[in-house]
TrEMBL record:
This is Ornithine carbamoyltransferase. L-ornithine binds at residues 165, 228, 232-233. Carbamoyl phosphate binds at residues 56-59, 81, 105, 132-135, 269-270, 313. It comes from the Bacteria. Keywords: Cytoplasm, Transferase. Belongs to the aspartate/ornithine carbamoyltransferase superfamily. OTCase family. Coiled coil: none annotated. Residues 7-145 form the Aspartate/ornithine carbamoyltransferase carbamoyl-P binding domain. One of its GO terms (molecular function) is ornithine carbamoyltransferase activity.
Amino acid sequence: PVNLKGRSLLTLKDFTAEEIKYLLNLAFDLKAKKRAGLRQELLKGKNIVLIFDKTSTRTRTAFEVAAYDEGAHVTFLTNSQMGKKESIEDTAKVLGRMYDGIEYRGYKQEVVEALAKYSGVPVWNGLTDEAHPTQGLADVMTMMEFIHKPLNQMKLVFVGDTRNNVANTLMRISSKLGIHYVAVGPESLKPSDEIMNEALENAKESGAIIEYTPDLDGVKGADAIYTDVWVSMGEEDKMPERVELLTPYRVDMNLIKRTENPNVIFLHCLPSFHDFETTVAKEAKERGLDIREVTDEVFRSKHSKVFDQAENRMHTIKAVMVATL
Ligand code: CP
Ligand code: NVA
């Protein structure tokens, strides 16, 4: 039997396939209960702190709503002393005295690891430069809702910056759950050897196929096409080179057709530059840079399940908190 009480979610590397499936099942159960209007207060009396060193819409609101739904209290902490006037270690020790759980979003993976090491309470990674584990759970949940096949018969193709935090996480979770994962993108942005080797090792046990190719034909037979922004938070200065490298990998209707699967779903962690409605996309355009990683046509098409995916962030994060607290 799976028991995750007291555990941190720093990266899915630390979780077995059985534990990941347990979290997914719990998320489905909590989603159904919320739909039915059933309230359980599974986190009653718990205090949770959410630390954000990078911006967020979904992750913050998902943690807050999940906590409130289950009767917990939340503190949203930006501009704290942490890392500026106080070490991560001391901050973690203080927060561990006040709170039952800590969410952290920021840059270095070492920060979230240190918070877990010194706080003595469960710590959840809400995105670092290396990983976005709660996103991966929501993504697989969404695939299970819309792709009517067992996990070990699904093919997920990530197109674009295949070495970013989201791609790393998808490769990892696929390799654990037996999902056929293909990373499609330019050679200079291919998955790191470290993550590739880790995934290939997991695949020996799960039977997953894990591949990288620069060739767009890699999308053939996909059940899901996934993309993310070309420039992640913290690497804004890389915009010109990324546009040059990734323009051939923009997800458009031709690429969707190249899957040869009329039922292929389109996924994106969001936020997305699918049009020029944002200040960042507009300003880039004025500099001659078209940063759209997906066309508006695909984003708004029947293939797109991106808002179901966004909703599932809440149900999966709720499952993580309920299971670990
Ligand atoms: N997908 C995701 O993490 O969204 P936010 O950056 O809005 O939290
Ligand atoms: N790769 C993106 C994901 C945002 C949710 C970033 O890190 O900015």
